[in-house]
Amino acid sequence: MGLSISWLPVKGKESEVVLRELGLALMGERDELPAESPVAAASLPGGWYVVIFDRYEHESVREDVLERVSTGCDVVAAGAEEHLMSSFASGWRDGQRLWWISHDADKGVYDLEVEGRVPNGFDRVRRERLDEQGGAGGSEADVDYVFDLPLEAAKLVTGFSHDETEPDDGFAVLTPAAGDRAPRDVPPAPADEAPAPKRRLSLFRRS
């Protein structure tokens, strides 16, 4: 079964501040895998703290949230919808988007939107994946290597991979914060809320 997932690594800001700005709180429970619970988090090597959401294009990776959370720190947002073979990643600092990469298989297996100054090493990875796609049959292949490119860009910066990273102490389960700790401009969604209808990535980009 394919995953539908988003994640938000932050560097340069205390984890308690990140959770407060996202309207989240620790539950005191832990998971082994990142998408077992609706929201979870983990500390990563290199000073990154990642929050994972079990839905693609989650509200917490919208542009207005990223502008706010990235104030005074570095943020990477990424997501994968494996049922539709869509993916995206972007890098932010001090409220400004630095780069953006996305893939939408509905537009073709070679679809790849790239904006800004991409992470170091991305051009090499792009050549490798495009070569693999061509070797597998190009547009007629039954695999989609281009789908991985936004996710690999995010990994180049943060070291986090949604299907590879396994912290020794697992992932801390999170819940919407109670009372006035939850920011008014980012209302938390109930854990049992039905997934929102799929939206186009234009909702998460500047026009």
Note down, in words, how this protein is organized.
The chain has a nine-stranded antiparallel beta sheet, with helices on both faces. It is an alpha+beta fold. The longest helix is centred in the middle third of the chain and has 14 residues, at 122-135. It has one domain. It contains four helices and nine strands; from the N terminus they run βαβββαββββααβ. The chain has helices spanning 15-22, 63-69, 122-135, 148-158, and strands at 4-11, 24-31, 39-43, 48-53, 74-81, 86-93, 96-104, 113-116, 171-176.
Q: Sum up the overall morphology in one term.
A: globular
Mean pLDDT: 88
Structurally, the number of domains stands at 1
Q: How does the helix and strand content classify structurally?
A: alpha+beta
Strand content: 25-35%
